[in-house]
Amino acid sequence: VGPYVLVTPNETRRKWLQQVAKKELADLEQWKKEHRPGPIKLVPQRLGGNESEAQVRQNQQMILMQSKYQKKHKREEYVKAKKAAEEVEILKKKAIQREKAERLEVKKRQEEMQRREVFLEDQKYKTNELLNRLDVSLPKSDSCQIANPGPESTAWKRSHAYQQALREDENRRLEEMRQEQQRKAELLEFKQKQEEETRTRALKNEQRSCLPSLFIFYCTLRVNNAFLDRLQNKTQPNNIYHPGYTG
């Protein structure tokens, strides 16, 4: 431990501080006594009990019923809000699907237009090729041909030959379709005949299988009727003319 200095306490200052503290405490107690609240003076009045017990019970019942209805109303409102949200979601999904369908339709139209353009180009190419082939196949010299045919006559011949080829192609396709329809009709008629023959054979077999049982039943019925007739003829005279018969 290092060196230190011991300071003696000042007794005079200590006494003065103690006196000041005692004086402040005394002043505080005096202030509390002077500012102590006085007695409370209230006008007497009736507290509660303005309604009877039946009315209180009825009010409680009404409040309970109202709370039930309020809960029910809140529940219904929640269900309606939920349904509305679901409908909105469904409408959004439908709108999205509709947009997708429209985009798909536009895409299909574009593809169809492209295919049509390609088809027209191919058709134009085929037409030119056919016209060139027809032009090559035409005879160079003819007795009925004009010495110097003009460009109009050559174009007319080409168009006429092209239309003739189109008509022949159309007729050929119509003939093929007619033959195909005829084959289908013949095949359908053949199938109907087969089905009719199958039904006829099944009906005949069923009738043949039923004939023995019907014959046996008919014979049994005839034997029973004959037996009953004989029995009735034997017993009827005795019953009618017997003495003491009462009918």
TrEMBL record:
Signal peptide: none
Keyword Coiled coil belongs to the record: yes
Highest taxon, organism lineage: Eukaryota
Record keywords, A-Z: Coiled coil
Coiled-coil stretches: 164-198
Keyword Coiled coil: yes
PANTHER family: EPITHELIAL-STROMAL INTERACTION PROTEIN 1
Name of the protein this chain belongs to: ESIP1 protein
Gene: Epsti1
